């Protein structure tokens, strides 16, 4: 309000108008007593000059703060009213205007009419104790503007000298107006003609819920008919507002239910997607672990094959050494037979050779025992490999069984999901259709992924079979190579027979080399056993991991099933709520139809009663006219009698005065 006060002072200075203290005080009071949402400027009972009203009009034309303006009993002249009305024509904030007790007439009424024609924010107009009906032409302009105004809801026209013509103008305005709710025309001179005009206007006006006509010389039956019509409008307005409020409430409820259903469905779809992603990740991890186990098994097979080849090489070398030892013994026997003559000379050498041969035979026996131990260990390794292969096959079979169970569960869930989607399509309309299509697309994608995983599994099986075939071929190739090596060894043995003497000299060195080689083989066998134990531990850990993952997958399946059941229950509850709301909406519509039917019946009864009252009023009017004519006739007779009596008295007085003068 301080801004309004400063603007008022500046306008006064700009137009060289004296600042009135009453206006300043009113603005200060408005600034100290501001209420939230309402800014009231009260200038009632203050004598405002026309220049001050002109400044106030300019101020109101640009003001956006004031909402309630009181100018009661200010004795405003015509120029002041015009200036204020001109300013209010462009105002967009004032909703309540009070101009009581200002004797507004003529040009002031026309100015107010032009103001309410152009103003689009004014809702209440109080014009009590003025003279609006004094000039019929001016009030006609006001009434026409009132009929065209789209915002006024309350108009007070009490004690404004309104005649039956003014009431007729108001009736014409009421036929055009569609927003006015209350009109107060008490204590005027509308008469029976004005009352009937207002009653006729109510036949087409359906928004007026308050029309006060007391003190207008309106017959009681016309006043009762007006009250009945206003009550009908009020009941119609109440029913319409109640129906609209209930319709809005039910619409909001239905929208909220639909929104919650959509959210629940979206949440369910997201949960299904997440579970599918988790399942795909689990399957991917399982396939990776299977490939890792296959790789580990292949590595173990390669190690066993290398160990087998090394054992075969050791056996070949041992057989060669045995044959060499046998050949050496035969050669020595032949030499012994050839040198019988010199046996005594070489007795010591023979004894030494025999002791060496005994030691060599003992070493060969020990080597044979070690080879037998290696063979037994190799057989145990082969048995363990066979057990690992059987365990792998069993795990694959279990995995296939679990995959088939999961696929069956998925098929069942797909079937149940499709049924629920069909039911949801009937209840939820287009959004659920789109969600169902998305769900079918996701199911097809999941089926494609499952088929892709199965193809990958088949491919892995084929590669494993190819690896086995390659392993068999490799074994055959190694066997052929072994035969070739044996043939080569025989050839070399024939060559060695020719150089027996050289081999005898180097026999000790060969024995030392052979012992070293056997020690290396023993170390290799120990390393292979260590690796085999580590591989066994790793296999057991992987088996435990697979069992844990299977349990987790089963737990996730149970959780997903529980979540699906819970979402189904929520959707059923929402559907029941929607059904109940629809039933209530249907019942409210039926109630509305019943009320409209009753209202139409009441309107028909009212108009029949009104017609009867009109007939009675016409009959009474005719009787009244006859009575008035009789009263006029009797009044004329009385006047004639009075004039005759006056003439007689005058004659008598004249006759009495004339003798007195004569005397």
Strand order within the widest beta sheet: 1-2-3-4-5-6-7
Task: State the shape.
Answer: rod-shaped
Could you give the order of the helices and strands?
HHEHEHEHEHEHEHEHHHHH
* CA-atom Rg in angstroms: 61 Å
The percent of residues in helical segments reads over 70%
- The first-to-last residue Cα distance is 91 Å
Low-confidence stretches: none
**Largest sheet data:** 7 strands, parallel
Number of strands: 7
Instruction: Tell me the strand percentage band.
Output: under 5%
Q: What do the pLDDT scores average to? A: 79
Structural class: mainly alpha
The number of helical elements comes to 13
How would you describe this structure to a colleague?
The chain is mainly alpha-helical and 663 residues long. 80% of the residues lie in helices and 3% in strands. It is built from 13 helices and seven strands. It has helices at 2-14, 21-32, 50-62, 78-89, 107-118, 136-148, 164-176, 191-201, 220-338, 347-428, 430-498, 500-505, 507-662, and strands at residues 40-42, 68-70, 96-98, 124-126, 154-156, 182-184, 210-212. The chain has a seven-stranded parallel beta sheet. Strand 2, helix 4 and strand 3 form a beta-alpha-beta unit. Helix 1 (2-14) crosses helix 3 and helix 7 runs parallel beside helix 8 (191-201). The longest helix has 156 residues, at 507-662. The radius of gyration is 61 Å and the shape is rod-shaped. The protein starts with a helix and ends with a helix.
């Amino acid at each position: 309000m301080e801004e309004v006060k400063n603007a008022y002072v500046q306008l006064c200075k700009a137009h060289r108008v004296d600042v009135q203290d009453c206006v300043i005080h009113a603005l200060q009071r408005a600034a100290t007593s501001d209420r939230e949402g309402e800014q009231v400027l009260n200038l009632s009972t203050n004598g405002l000059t026309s220049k001050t009203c002109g400044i106030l009009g300019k101020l109101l034309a640009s003001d956006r703060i004031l909402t309630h303006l009181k100018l009661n009993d200010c004795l405003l002249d015509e120029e002041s009213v015009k200036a204020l009305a001109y300013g209010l024509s462009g105002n967009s904030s004032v909703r309540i205007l009070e101009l009581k007790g200002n004797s507004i007439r003529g040009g002031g009424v026309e100015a107010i009419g032009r103001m309410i024609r152009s103003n689009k924010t004014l809702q209440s107009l109080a014009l009590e104790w003025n003279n609006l009906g004094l000039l019929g032409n001016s009030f006609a302009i006001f009434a026409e503007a009132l009929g065209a105004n789209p915002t006024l809801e309350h108009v007070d026209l009490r004690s404004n000298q309104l005649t039956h013509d003014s009431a007729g103008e108001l009736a014409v305005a009421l036929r055009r107006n569609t927003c006015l709710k209350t009109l107060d025309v008490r204590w005027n001179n509308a008469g029976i003609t004005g009352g009937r005009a207002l009653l006729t206007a109510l036949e087409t006006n359906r928004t007026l819920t308050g029309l006060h006509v007391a003190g207008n010389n309106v017959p009681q039956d016309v006043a009762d008919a007006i009250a009945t019509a206003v009550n009908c409008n009020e009941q119609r307005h109440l029913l319409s507002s109640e129906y609209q409020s209930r319709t809005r409430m039910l619409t909001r409820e239905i929208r909220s239910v639909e929104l919650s259903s959509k959210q629940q469905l979206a949440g369910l779809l997201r949960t299904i997607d997440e579970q599918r992603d988790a399942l795909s990740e689990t399957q991917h991890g399982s396939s990776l672990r299977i490939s890792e186990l296959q790789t580990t098994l292949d590595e173990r097979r390669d190690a066993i094959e290398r160990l087998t080849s090394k054992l075969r090489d050791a056996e070949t070398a041992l057989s060669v050494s045995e044959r060499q030892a046998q050949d050496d013994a035969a050669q020595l026997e032949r030499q012994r037979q050839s040198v019988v003559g010199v046996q005594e000379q070489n007795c010591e050498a023979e004894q030494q050779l025999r002791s060496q041969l005994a030691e060599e035979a003992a070493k060969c026996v020990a080597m044979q025992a070690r080879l037998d131990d290696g063979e037994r260990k190799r057989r145990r390794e082969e048995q363990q490999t066979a057990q690992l292969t059987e365990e792998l096959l069993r795990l694959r079979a279990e995995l296939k069984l679990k995959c088939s169970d999961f696929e069956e569960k998925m098929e069942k869930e797909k079937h149940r999901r499709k049924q629920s989607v069909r039911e949801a399509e009937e209840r939820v309309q287009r959004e659920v259709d789109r969600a169902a299509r998305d769900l079918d697309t996701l199911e097809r994608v999941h089926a494609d992924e499952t088929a892709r995983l199965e193809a990958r599994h088949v491919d892995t099986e084929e590669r494993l079979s190819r690896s086995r075939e390659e392993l068999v071929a490799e074994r055959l190739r190694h066997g052929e190579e072994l035969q070739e090596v044996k043939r080569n060894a025989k050839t070399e043995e024939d060559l060695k027979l020719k150089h027996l003497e050289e081999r005898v000299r180097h026999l000790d060195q060969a024995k030392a080399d052979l012992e070293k080689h056997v020690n290396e083989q023993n170390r290799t066998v120990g390393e292979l056993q260590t690796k085999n134990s580590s591989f066994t531990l790793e296999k057991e850990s992987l088996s435990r991991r697979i069992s844990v993952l299977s349990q987790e997958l089963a737990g996730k399946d149970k959780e997903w099933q529980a979540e699906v059941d819970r979402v189904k229950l929520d959707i059923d509850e929402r559907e029941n709520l929607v059904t109940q709301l629809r039933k209530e909406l249907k019942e409210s519509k039926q109630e509305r139809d019943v009320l409209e039917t009753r209202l139409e019946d009441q309107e028909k009864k009212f108009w029949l009663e009104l017609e009867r009252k009109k007939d009675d009023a016409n009959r009474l009017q005719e009787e009244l006219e006859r009575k008035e004519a009789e009263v006029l006739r009797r009044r004329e007779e009385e006047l004639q009698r009075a004039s005759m009596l006056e003439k007689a008295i005058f004659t008598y007085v004249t006759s009495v005065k004339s003798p007195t003068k004569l005397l």
